[in-house]
Specification:
Elements (H helix, E strand, L loop, with lengths): L1 E8 L2 E6 L1 H10 L10 E4 L6 H4 L2 H12 L3 H6 L2 E5 L6 E6 L2
Parallel strand pairs: 1-4
Antiparallel strand pairs: 1-2, 2-3, 4-5
């Protein structure tokens, strides 16, 4: 399963792959390297993280970070977005 760390801020959030996920992706795809190291989604004002983040947005973020297709992500077991400090899970999509 792909794990994405989430760092919430007052006006946005930064998303990045965990080291464990990067190791797993390199072992599955020898030529793989992360596209961006992180993705920052910002708003011009304070925002409600839980209300703003919707299903399609989670998918787009993980696709940007991994350069994988939705099918490849599902074949790896899905994805979980988690706070690296508190381990709070914000979103999880497991393969069916």
């Amino acid at each position: 399963m792909i794990e994405v760390s989430v760092g919430k801020q007052l006006n946005g959030a930064v998303f990045g792959l965990t080291p464990k996920t990067e190791i797993m992706l390199r072992s599955r795809f020898p030529d793989w390297s992360p596209a961006p190291n992180s993705v920052f989604i910002s708003y011009g004002r304070p925002w409600d993280f839980e209300k703003t983040m919707e299903g399609p947005m989670w998918t787009q973020i993980v696709m940007l970070l991994t350069r994988l297709t939705e099918q490849q992500i599902q074949e790896l077991g899905g994805v979980t977005f988690v706070n690296p400090v508190s381990h709070e899970v914000f979103f999880e999509s497991r393969a069916a």
